[in-house]
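Re: weekly structure request thread

Next one in the queue (422 aa):
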Amino acid sequence: MNKKPISPPELKNDCFALPAGVSWTPVSEAHTLLQERLSAIAATETVLITESLGRILAKPVVALRSNPPSPNSAVDGYAIRGADFGDGPHIVPCVKGRSAAGQPYSGSVPKGHAVRILTGATMPDGVDTVILQEDVTATEGQIAFHGPLKIGSNAREAGEDVLAGDVILRQSRVVTPADLAVLAASGISEVTAYKPLRVGVLSTGDELVEAGDTATGDQIYDANRPMLLAMLHQLGYIPIDLGRAPDDREHIRNTLNEAATNVDVILTSGGASAGDEDHMSALLSENGGLMQWRMAIKPGRPLALAMWQGVPIFGLPGNPVAAMVCTLVFARPALALLSGQGWFWPEGTMLPASFSKFKKAGRREYLRARVNDGKVEVFQSEGSGRISGLSWADGLVELPDEAAEITPGTQVRYMSFTDFGL
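Done, posted below.
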């Protein structure tokens, strides 16, 4: 537990650079670029398996011990050597004693004899088959049963589940409760895991106030920050609240400078476009190697990507609907790469639509949706200002880049929020 943590190489400053001549970026092309440019940035540490639930493995885990470690019985019954008994009735003497889990029979069972054995108990020398106790008549010192018997029945071989030296969990796996059973059964008490990413969340804009505070008519409550912080928590990262920054370039600069010393990744919302008050994108252009990706996506489009003092920044749109969609579509898989988990993109499920829509070609669309009676319905409005649609929905419908005409019964790809890990 006192091993010194190590860190992987830092990302290159140009990791977000688009190829020459690219302006509008399709979602699939953006995904390819992110996969090619990003890699794990999280440090590693050794943790006890009791503290490893939900952690991402930084190394493959090799079994220290076979499971089961020795041949044992799968049932309560009597152990014999199967080859000693053919068809017909048999009356067989039993040796004194028994084999129980944790209290094995110490001797060797002679030919033509049986020994009482309980579930999970080690098979003694001289036997290879177990007869269910329901299939025998037992009296003191002997049992009676009918053959033939299947040699090896009701007996588990040593290592039939896991052999010592086997890789039982791969690198980049997120540890589950079931994994803890496999680890413990294989003699593993600790694993090497990536440290959870510390992800800072910053909202920008003079128009924002905190929920609960008094807002004037031209102000709005900051909906993005609580949403993004909660999403990061559910995804297994350590959310760091960087607060709200006004439309003041020096204030934003100081906030980013301080954040870069405390977090691994920064998510910002607002100011990611190129307007007069988009100070975030202007500041990143000056000091953060801004790469402004104009995504062929609805809702969304502007996505600012930059490095600030070695820390990746994802500049999300200010609209909460677009911010959530862009987080799921771009930041979620990118954070998985940076955290050591590897690329993550849910396949979704093809389900019949219960709605109608004509979609133009040119960009991928994500509609707030939920499943009702086995069919997918979408929120009544596609307006990205309708925040209530996020709460109404259980997931997203993904419509392809190409033109499409959806009518009731058309198969569409539905991606639940659970598929994304929420």
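DSSP finds seven helices and 29 strands in the chain. The longest strand covers residues 88-99.
Next request, please.
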